[in-house]
Amino acid sequence: MPRNRSEGEMRDQTCHCRFSLKRPLLWALAIWLGMPIVIWPQQASPVERQQKKSAPQSRSEEVGDVVALTAELVVLDVTVVDRRHHVVADLEKDRFAVYENGVRQEIAFFSREEAPVSLGLVLDTSGSMRRKLSKVIAAAKSLMRQSHPEDEYFLVEFKGEAELLEDFTRDASLIHDALDNLIASGQTALLDAIYLSVEHAQKYGKHRRKAIFVVTDGEERNSYYTREQVLERLRESDVQVYAIGFTEGLGEAAIFRQTESRRLSGQEKKARKLLEELARESGGRAFFPQSLDELDAIASTIARELRAQYAIGYYPSNPERDGSWRTVRVEVTPDKERGPLTARTRAGYYAMKRDPAKRAP
Predict the structure, then answer these.
(1) pLDDT attached to residue 69
(2) Are 245 and 274 within 8 A, CB to CB?
């Protein structure tokens, strides 16, 4: 089946990637392929747009969820960890250096305040996850308990298809009820679930900071979307991927499960590479627990990272909006007590083309 479809075909296609609402309506399967997505601050209100017109060169620092500065400001969510992977949340602006396409940029905006997150819980309920599902549900609830009071959530389960069980809500009890009704069966449409969840978070999440929490065994069997399409979707969005992969035992590696040192099968290597690549591209993180007992600690780590991120913004020294891909790198000066520090953020962004019809005469 061909991978590129027209908008009409996308609206008519309902077989492979069903992403339906449990409550009000059925969704269209996919949402406008190829549309550029701004990775800058979320769309401003009319009042904010008027403020921008009257003060287009503003470079002041602000905190909180809304960054009311000019549209050309690129904002990066940055996680800093020490060599033991402990979160470092007490750094000042002068400890950071930002590079775009290898060229150092001037930091115009800096914040280390906690900000709410639009978070998608994306859980593998295929048959291979049956014995793990109760622990996975507990980890999802643990993550929510450590949330910001204004966080919002949606819940997706995936097996042969990806299905939106609960749309964005701040009512944790609605998510908990849906979690308690999950049943494991069928195959694994992992790529579809990630693609559509990223799309949903980007389009409907009300907070600037967005993420999805994916728990899976990493096995891919039934997806319509390809790995390349999912990576491209991530590059066009500003959604971070945090993934927990129970990849141990995939393929022939099952015979090594009882040994302390074992070879990874080709299937397990492929699953790990995919989850690591998705996390790295988005500025998130992938975990590969050896035991279900590690889940609660991992959920706590993810909650801390989401709470303790820095927001760093800059106006690109290359002002051209030519649609090109710009790589981004953030560096942090070492700490005398904690040693080398590592900054994680998204791999880059597209410099969106301006719409000629909207240019001033």
Answers:
(1) 42
(2) no
